[in-house]
Amino acid sequence: MDIKEQSVLLRPAKPEFDEGLKFAHYLDQAAEGFFRIMLGRESEKIIATAFIDTGHSLSHENVIFVDVDTKIVGMSSTFTERQHRMFSDEPLRRAAKRNAIRLKLVRTLFAPVWRILETIPEGDFYVQGIAIEPELRGAGIGSLLMNDIDDRAKASESNRLSLDVSAKNDDARRLYKRLGMVESSTWPNSRFLPTVFFRMSKYL
User: Fold this and answer.
1) How far are the Cα atoms of 23, 72, 74, 93, 144 from residue 64, in angstroms, in the given order?
2) Which residues pair with 76 in a beta bridge?
3) Rounded distance, CA 145 to CA 11, Å?
4) CA torsion 92→98→100→104, rounded to 10°?
5) Alpha helix locations (H) across the chain?
6) Does the chain have fewer CB atoms within 10 Å around its N or its C terminus?
7) How deeply is 97 buried, as exposed, middle or buried, from its count of CB atoms within 10 A (0-12, 13-18, 19+)?
8) How far is CA 119 from CA 3, 51, 80, 188, 191, in A?
């Protein structure tokens, strides 16, 4: 599908529960179901509740939505390494309520992965997630989002743009490579184990 540029609006997310539900849906899509595993069946409601709050990685403050004819069709979630250092897990724990124990258990079980994903080098501008409605992939919206991310990363005076992408997500890796990013590391870093995800980056 072709998208005329004038019909596309990139805008900051609003601190509203309904927008939080859209964000949660896209974030879980970008993370290939990880948040649903971490938080259970109520994951979207939990994330949407936390989304309204500030000062954490799932806050509306970090989200840009893409509207096409006033309908949300995609998003990006980003923050600087400096912001990340100041983030608190408390809003998500508070929103999780009875699922907080599950959250703690999953974080313990996935501690090696979590540690890698939470390690953002000094000076980086990190892309936590980017997602687009399936029927609009290939229409140029991903490039618009990445160009916007690039501009905001430079404006933040970050040194490098970085993100993590599933080794299975060939389409996303191709897009990022086309936009100048390279595979800077893998996890796990072993010749004997299959690669789960790549960290991709580019200097600004």
Assistant:
1) 9, 10, 9, 24, 11
2) 64, 130
3) 11
4) -160
5) 17-30, 34-39, 43-52, 81-86, 90-96, 100-109, 111-117, 141-155, 170-178
6) N
7) exposed
8) 36, 22, 12, 14, 22
* Separation CA 149–CA 147 (nearest Å): 5
Tokens standing for residue 37 = 């595993």
Q: What is the largest CA-CA distance in the chain?
A: 49
> CA 91 to CA 74: how far, in whole Å?
24
DSSP code of residue 4: -
Q: In whole angstroms, what is the distance from residue 56 CA to residue 33 CA?
A: 20
Total Cβ atoms within 10 A of residue 147? 12
Structure confidence at residue 185 (pLDDT): 87
pLDDT tens across 132-141, in order? Answer: 998 888 888 9
Q: What are the tokens at 168?
A: 């299975």
What domains can be seen in the chain, in order of their start residue? 5-164 (3.40.630.30)
Pair of tokens at residue 157: 């005076």
